[in-house]
# Entry
Amino acid sequence: MLKNKHANRSSALQLRLAALLLLCLLPFSAGSVLRIEITDTAGLQDAIPIAVVPFISEVPGLSVDIAEVLENDLKRSGRFKVLPRSSLRAFPQSTREVQFTDWNTAEVEYLVVGRVNAAADGGLQVQFELIDVLKQTRMLAYEPNAQGVVEYCCRYQIGRDQLRRTGHTIANLVYEQIVGITGVFDTQFAYITAVGNKDNKRYALELADIDGNNITRVLEISRPILSPTWSPDGEQLAYVSFEFPGRTAIIVHHLAKAERRKLISIEGINGSPAWSPDGRRLALSLSHRGSPDIYMVNVFSGQLSQLTNEPSIETEAAWLDNNTIVFTSNRSGTPQIYRKEVAGSAPAQRLTFEGKYNAGATASPDGSKIAFIHSEEGNFRIATLDLQSKVLEVLTDGRLDESPSFAPNGEMILYATEENGRGVLGLISVDGLVTQRVSLANENVRDPAWGPKR
# Structure
């Protein structure tokens, strides 16, 4: 959602609703592929040098270069500097074939080698090794067998259509082994776009792998949809739909079953759903009693609980943990972010004090910080707030950045922005040193949500 810069900035909800109407005007043409481009590599100055040798294979007709998938994942993480293939001095198939002087000269610290073989069942067998060049040891490998031979590390029996995902899985293992943090290369994100022209417009909810591949259209309808949010198990999405006459609705959509359920649709605003970490509740904003307030609804029973009761506008809740939410309110006169326990009657606590506009918060996976939209010199940018140190850091430098969503490991933030008058997605590391653009050719993309680990 883009902010309407002419809207009344004292009203967070009015501003966001104006943005949703703007989304309805955006063009779209189906059948495109997401393109991901690293736009700032400042963080790569301290990146870890690694080489990925093309996996040996005698299997004809493979449509995916699994080593290339691994290379691209590591590059986009911002943590690794991958040696170009043109600079490889050797192509070993295993640790036994590695001449460490070749890689020391190339100033490589880690090396990945592997192979793809045909399996007896008609599928494929993928094996790989991760090697510490400086220590000249395997980092990931099975123990020696009875003959004293060390086999490849992880051996995968897969179908031919699982090569790309297996590349992501290997990237996760390499990342975690070296960096010490869980990788997120085998995750997806959801986003919204509009299909067709003004007289025949339709709206789509789509999923894509984080490398831009495997785009799946989950839903296409003739009325706007917005604000997708993932269930913690990754099996369901909740979102706002305008498809029902006279009012919006919160829809819960089971992805594997392709089943949609209208959870709540009452008079007034039904907006901003957010799953609780236990997957049992949604926080949302409702206005059936007057001004919008934050409510909690049980996903199974539909039972409602009111969490705020203020004459101000209360919206855009997110969960820090199962007992605590953050949300946007203009009770202080301008949109700011507050924290509140969902049980008990303790008053909400204001979290943001820098600037006259802070809204649309989302929480990091460990609940230690929030990312949100921060107004700075008339521009709307993504900022983070460390909840312990209270340090606010502005990460992006765009004019209309919004809808931040943390990666499941908390290392990157996905958000919506504008480029050349067109809606695109941005990715930025939490230290602000690596940025990327995710675009759909000739199309506008909005409302991204990063899915959980699969």
Observations:
- Residues 303 and 349 are 26 Å apart (CA to CA).
- The domain at 12-24+188-450 is CATH 2.120.10.30 (Neuraminidase).
- Helices lie at 12-23, 66-77, 100-105, 163-179.
- The chain has two domains: 12-24+188-450, 44-179.
